[in-house]
Write a structure and sequence with these properties.
This protein is of the alpha/beta class and about 650 residues long. About 45% of the residues lie in helices and about 15% in strands. The strands form 3 sheets. The protein has a 7-stranded parallel sheet with strand order 10-9-8-14-13-12-11, with helices on one face. It is globular, with a radius of gyration of 24 Å.
């Protein structure tokens, strides 16, 4: 499944994953069911077809026949024309508007004034290095590593940061230069799928102002290597080395900086893929060919075994090959009846050539709601809510519900068991429309939320699709599973998380703040769910998970201990109730003061100058309703 190359280089060359490599891969796809080709066992296993190779071969041939004819219809998307919203998910344009309104309210600004506080910082993390074959031998890619700090001796390291940093920084500079476009933002808002119609209607009052605050701006400015953040209104990025690995930090006003997170992941994914395909046994066309096999098998098997509309395509943030990413959308639309997608890149490209939601060839409807950066930021911004339990995560969700009229929850930031218990204590569980599973075990998640509609959004292989369907999950979403994730070798794992907030506190009425303002720094983190119960987690044996991300400035151990304590409380309560068979009311985790603090924080947003605008009357009404509900529930909680 590789294509021979005449020359190799140890230095990555950007933009090898281009249209030409995709066309070469499609030209090399099989056309007959003969013995000249086979499907890799790892591809079969990933797609759940290890016992049905004939079906897998039929899927590959069906895709091959279509692709050879369809490649000429695939819209062109040259990298020089990429925009700031590309390689972002739809939830970003939803959350950015919520962040815009929150930032205005918390800063005491009137409508029409673009907020500059709070400032947030995202940080990348290379969780797992990819492996690939070079000269028939397995190698580990080290393009982001300082060679002298490389800790693993089992596999030889190929490449290092010294030889790749200049090229990587140039790739980052190109990403940062991409601009926001009013026309594209308006197109993307219109391109929402049917399930997002109510949410877009709720957010419509702020749309024009929000778009005006973004239009024409660059995504970020890459600072010189020794420069530090200016601390002003600009969105800035820099590269630093931490523990022998390059890390990208990006910082700026929240509603703008949020758009930097996923393009950073995409450029790192593409950079590593191109480093491997420029040096390894499989070139970019070989990568595409394997991806086509993976995609054909997974897409067809999911289409055949799940209810219509069950699956969504959550891809774009780690897509190593933009043109292949577009081809996947085209195939879903033309051959498999369409799919909802999170990809703003696909939304822009297909929408710009006149193919909006439901229309061929894409039949693309954008979908998404919220992400962990909401509760993570509020954890850093509202420590006054979290002295006892992580109530700031409820604050974020009620704010989101009020401004979007969408009652989705993402409960695992500080443990799903804990979040569910807080919902019960505040009498909010019945108001949840959909709960998203994003870590831990599907079975345990279904136990914690037995009757609430559920969405599985951490799918790595087909077995998890089958399990989610069997457990009654109403929907599921996947990205790399649908083809971009290599299966024959260990694939990279990347993350970027919000780790820090900086907010400017306006002076109180008595002018108590010297100099007119005060700057407050907060640090964020995310616990997630364990592969079991946090109540049983053996700290002495397991330690702090390597994937736990925190700013180097933060008290990392203190953050982890605090979040683990939150997670333990909810999981221990759930475990006791389950073991005893007690179906009665749960003993509360929250106290009355927790509810009162939450109601007070929501009331401050409600009373802000920006929310007095008549356009926001419906938002205010919903928010006031939640304040009343929280106060009423708090009256029944213990002191």
């Amino acid at each position: 499944m590789s294509v021979a190359k005449k020359s190799r280089t140890s230095e990555p060359r950007f933009n090898l994953c281009d249209r030409a490599s995709l066309e070469a891969a499609i030209a090399a796809l099989p056309t007959a069911d003969d013995d000249t080709w086979s499907v890799l066992p790892t591809t079969l296993a990933g797609a759940g077809l290890q016992h049905d190779e004939p079906a897998a071969r039929a899927h590959v041939l069906a895709f091959s026949k279509w692709a050879k004819e369809a490649i000429g219809r695939l819209p062109l998307a040259p990298p020089a024309e990429f925009e700031a919203t590309d390689f972002n998910d739809y939830y970003k344009i939803v959350m950015s508007r919520v962040q815009y309104l929150y930032s205005q309210a918390s800063s005491g600004l009137p409508c029409g004034t673009a907020p500059t506080s709070p400032v947030v910082q995202f940080m990348t993390q290379l969780r797992r290095r990819p492996q690939f074959h070079l000269g028939g031998e397995l190698r580990t890619l080290g393009c982001f590593d300082v060679r002298s700090a490389w800790p693993v001796a089992e596999l030889p390291l190929v490449g290092d940061l010294d030889t790749s940093l200049a090229t990587f920084r140039e790739a980052l500079r190109r990403v940062g230069a991409r601009k926001f476009s009013r026309a594209t933002l308006e197109l993307l808002v219109r391109s929402r799928g049917a399930p997002s119609a109510t949410m877009e209607e709720a957010l419509q009052p702020v749309c024009d102002e929000w778009i005006g605050a973004l239009d024409g701006l660059c995504l970020f400015t890459l600072l010189d290597e020794d420069a530090d953040f200016s601390g002003g209104e600009a969105v800035e990025a820099k590269t630093v080395v931490q523990d022998g690995v390059v890390v990208v930090l990006v910082q700026g006003p929240w509603f703008r900086c949020t758009f930097c997170e996923t393009p950073l992941l995409q450029v790192m994914a593409q950079f590593m893929t191109e480093a491997m395909t420029s040096t390894g046994d499989a070139d970019a066309a070989g990568w595409c060919r394997e991806a086509c096999f993976n995609f054909a098998c997974c897409a067809h098997h999911v289409h055949a075994t799940t209810p219509r509309g069950w699956a969504s395509f959550f891809s774009g943030r780690r897509s190593p090959h933009p043109d292949f990413h577009l081809l996947q959308h085209l195939y879903f639309g033309e051959a498999l009846g369409g799919i909802t997608s999170s990809s703003l890149f696909a939304g822009r490209v297909f929408g710009s050539v006149g193919h909006g939601p439901g229309s061929p060839p894409s039949r693309l409807g954008l979908t998404g709601t919220l992400a962990h950066e909401g509760p993570m930021a509020c954890f850093a911004l509202h420590p006054e809510l979290d002295a006892h339990m992580p109530v700031s995560s409820i604050f974020w969700h009620l704010l989101f519900w009020s401004l979007t009229s969408n009652h989705t929850v993402l409960p695992d930031a500080f443990g799903t068991g804990t979040f569910q218990s807080m919902l019960v204590d505040l009498q909010l569980l019945e108001r949840v429309h959909m709960v998203r599973q994003d870590s831990g075990l599907l079975e345990r998640f279904a136990q914690i939320f037995p009757t609430t509609p559920k969405f599985a959004s951490e799918i790595e292989k087909y077995a998890e699709v089958a399990k989610a369907v069997a457990l009654g999950f109403n929907h599921g979403g996947a990205g790399g599973f649908f083809g971009e994730k290599r299966r024959a070798c260990t694939e990279f794992s990347l993350a970027a998380k919000l780790v820090k907030t900086i907010r400017t506190v306006r002076p109180a009425a008595d002018g108590a703040i010297a100099g007119g303002r005060s700057v407050v720094v907060g640090y964020a983190g995310k616990l997630g769910d364990a592969d079991g119960s946090w109540a049983d987690y053996d700290v002495a044996k397991e330690g702090m998970p390597a994937k736990f991300i925190a700013s180097v400035e933060a008290p990392r151990q203190q953050l982890w201990d605090r979040m683990l304590a939150y997670g333990r409380k909810g999981d221990a309560l759930h475990d006791r109730m389950l073991a005893s068979g007690d179906a009665g009311p749960k003993p509360p985790l929250l106290l009355r003061r927790d509810a009162l603090a939450l109601a007070s924080a929501l009331s401050q947003v409600l009373a802000s100058p920006s929310m007095s605008d008549p356009r926001y009357a419906a938002m205010k009404e919903r928010l006031a309703g939640f304040v009343q509900a929280v106060e009423a529930a708090g009256a029944a909680l213990p002191e």
